[in-house]
Amino acid sequence: MSGRVVTTDQIHITKNAHQINVVLRNPEVNTHSDAEPHFHGKPLSQQGHFGEIMKELDRMVGLDNVKELVFEIYALLRVAGLRAEVGLTAKTQVYHMIFKGNPGTGKTTVARIIAKLLQTMGVLTKGHLIEVERADLVGEYIGHTALKTRELVKKAIGGVLFIDEAYSLARGGEKDFGKEAIDTLVKAMEDHKNQFILILAGYGEEMERFLQTNPGLPSRFPIQLDFPDYTVDQLMQIAEMMVKEREYALIPQTEIKIRQQIISEKQQAEAETSFSNARYVRNLIEKAMRNQAVRLLNQGSQQPSKQDLMILRPEDVKLERKTAKETFKTL
Ligand SMILES: Nc1ncnc2c1ncn2[C@@H]1O[C@H](COP(=O)(O)OP(=O)(O)OP(=O)(O)O)[C@@H](O)[C@H]1O
Questions:
Q1: pLDDT tens sequence across 5-26
Q2: 37: helix, coil or strand?
Q3: Which residues belong to any copy of the AAA+ ATPase domain (predicted)?
Q4: Order of strands across the sheet with 4-7?
Q5: What does residue 160 show for φ and ψ, rounded to 5 degrees?
Q6: Best mutation site among 58, 108, 109 for ligand 1, i.e. most ligand atoms within 8 A of its Cβ?
Q7: How many distinct structural domains can be found in the chain?
Q8: How is 154-187 classified by DSSP, letter by letter?
Q9: Cα(88) to centroid of ligand 1, in Å?
Q10: d(CA 83, CA 113)
Q11: Same-domain status, 241 and 318
Q12: pTM confidence score
């Protein structure tokens, strides 16, 4: 059996006559169309549902650690299949995960992609994602929390239960109903082993503290992923991608304006640790689209050209600064 080499933009696994070859396009290096990602010697576009999922992940800017993990899981499951074919055991792994990162760093989007991937690979039966927060789990009287939590676990069976700001469950200490939610979740992980995947997500530091104060938890979540803040260049790449997907276009002056807005928002929000990363960019672009629409309608009876309908001008790029919570809960 040959060895295995994993790099950030390529995973190559060779096993006897079988060859699984993954080439993950590095967005900074391969931007032309002939660099379409291949898997097992075939372009992803020819690999049906699985190829679609991988393309969706590959399109995301940055997140190399996440892409690497997803390919690892995929490879493991493929190799498990090959092992089963030759009569070797292929024990199922535990896929509960912790996602640590600031708002808008892609945690929910990645969770959704992982849910679909695991469904395609036969680990999950449905591949849906149930996204909840403290208020959805915690009840108002003794026993109510366990009931609410069990109901949500039931809904998540076959998919992923994604708990945002999971540490808020431990905020009130021993007497708080949040504790009951944690205990119920831990029990559900035992009772419904391999039937659903639990992802706990939230700010890095608060997640760390939460795990430290609940020593029984870390070992139940073998996969921990960091979602770092995006750099200004990455946020610009995300902006360009969002504009292109929506069939709009930027002129150089608009790009400059967007970059300035991002830098200024990042600086102001960082003082309050509230910068909402890619979500801020999405809000900025969507507001620019609304501003462009108003500008075009206000310009009189003249029918806008196709180009006019596509171009976002620098004056369209303005987004009122809101308080931290409002900004990242807008959508
Ligand atoms: N790497 C990326 N490339 C392209 N778009 C991205 C990327 N990361 C996030 N986005 C987009 O930014 C928006 C917010 O992402 P998402 O909801 O996944 O973030 P989050 O970390 O779950 O945020 P929160 O913790 O506030 O819920 C989505 O529209 C998503 O598609």
A1: 333 333 333 333 333 333 333 3
A2: coil
A3: 93-231
A4: 4-7, 10-15, 18-23, 38-39, 42-43
A5: -115, 135
A6: 109
A7: 3
A8: HHHTTSEEEEETGGGGGTT-TTSHHHHHHHHHHH
A9: 40
A10: 26
A11: yes
A12: 0.81
Domain ends where: 69, 91, 113? Answer: 91
Atom from ligand 1 closest to the CA of residue 105: 21
Q: Kindly give the number of the ligand 1 atom that is closest to the alpha carbon of 106.
A: 18
| CATH code for position 249 | 1.10.8.60
CATH classification of the domain holding 134: 3.40.50.300
Q: Strands 38-39 and 42-43, how do they pair?
A: antiparallel
The complex's ipTM works out to 0.97
Q: Return the structure tokens found at 277.
A: 């990363």
Residue 43 Rama label (left phi>0; alpha psi -120 to 50; beta): beta
106 CA from centroid of ligand 1 (Å): 3
Type of residue at 83: R
Identify the band that residue 174 occupies on the pLDDT scale cut at 50, 70 and 90: low
Task: Select from 163, 164, 167 the least CA-distant residue to 208.
Answer: 167
Ligand 1 cavity residues, CB under 6 Å: 60-63, 101, 103-109, 164, 238, 241, 278-279, 282, 328
In the reported structure, the alpha carbon of residue 90 is separated from the centroid of ligand 1 by a whole-number distance in angstroms of 34
Mean local confidence (pLDDT), 196-212: 90
Phi, psi (degrees; rounded to nearest 5) at 269: -70, -30
The parent domain of residue 239 ranges over: 232-329
Pair 109, 214 in one domain: yes
Q: How far is the CA of 41 from the centre of ligand 1 (A)?
A: 31
The pick from 61, 97, 105 for probing ligand 1's pocket by mutation, whose C-beta has the most ligand atoms within 8 angstroms, reads 105
- Give the tokens for residue 305: 């050209």
Query: Which residue's CA lies nearest to atom 11 of ligand 1?
Result: 278
Phi and psi (nearest 5°) for 228?
-70, 160
